[in-house]
Amino acid sequence: MNSDTKTLSAELSKRNIRPSYQRIKVLDYLIKNQFHPTADQIFTGLQSEIPTLSKSTIYNTLNTFIEAGLVKTLNIEDNETRYDIIIDTHGHFKCEECGTIFNFNINIDSLTTEGLTGFKAIDKNIYFKGICPKCLLNINQDENERKENVL
Ligand SMILES: [Zn+2]
Ligand SMILES: [Zn+2]
C-alpha cells in the first residue's frame, strides 16, 4: 500500500470509513511501522505529531479498521494485543530476546492437518518463538567474550 495521504484517504473511503486526519495518521503509522505495534506504541508514536490525540481515539480507530478488514489483531501474548497491517495469511516469529515479531511467508493451505476432518477453520495462525539472528549473534559474542575472560 502506498502511503501518501491521497492513497490512504482513498483506501479508507473505499471501505466506507470517513477519512479523518487521525484515521489517516493511524493507517500511515501501521504501514510505516510493520513491527506489529500495540495501541500504546501507536499512541506514543503519533502523540508528538497530533497533540490532541487520545488513547480512546486510537482504540476506536483500530476497531473501525478491524471491522473493515484493514487490520488484524495478533495475540501472541495473552496480555497484549498487537496490530498487523498485513492481512494476508503469514507466519509470525517472536524473538524472546528482543521481543520483535517478524513476519514470514508460509503456504498455510499446504500444511497437513490430521484429526480435523469436518471442521471449518475460521482463522489459521502460525506462531514460532525463538531467537532472531541479530540476538543470536549477540549471545554468541557474549559467550566468546566470557571465554576470553576465563583464559
Ligand atoms: Zn531478537
Ligand atoms: Zn504479521
Salient structural properties:
alpha+beta, 5 strands, 2 domains, 151 residues, binds zinc ion, Arc Repressor Mutant, subunit A, flat, three-stranded mixed β-sheet, Dna Ligase, domain 1, two-stranded antiparallel sheet
Per CATH, the class of the largest domain reads: Mainly Alpha
Strand % is 5-15%
Kindly report the oligomeric state of this protein: single chain
Report the structural category.
alpha+beta
What level of helicity do the residues show?
40-55%
Compute the CA-based radius of gyration. 19 Å
Number of domains: 2
Describe the secondary structure blueprint for this structure.
Blueprint: H1 5-14, H2 21-32, H3 39-47, H4 55-67, E1 72-74, E2 82-84, E3 91-95, E4 101-104, E5 127-130, H5 133-150
Parallel strand pairs: 3-5
Antiparallel strand pairs: 1-2, 3-4
Helix pairs in contact: 1-2, 3-4
Would you kindly provide a written description of the structure presented here, covering whatever features stand out?
Strands 4-3-5 form a three-stranded mixed sheet, with no helix packed on it. α1 (5-14) crosses α2 (21-32) and α3 (39-47) crosses α4 (55-67). The chain is flat. 13% of the residues are buried. It is 41% helix and 13% strand. It has two domains: 1-87, Arc Repressor Mutant, subunit A, CATH 1.10.10.10; 89-107 and 123-151, Dna Ligase, domain 1 (2-Layer Sandwich). The protein is α+β, with helices and mostly antiparallel strands and 151 residues long. The longest helix is centred in the last third of the chain and has 18 residues, at 133-150. The protein is built from five helices and five strands. The site of one zinc ion has 7 residues, from α5.
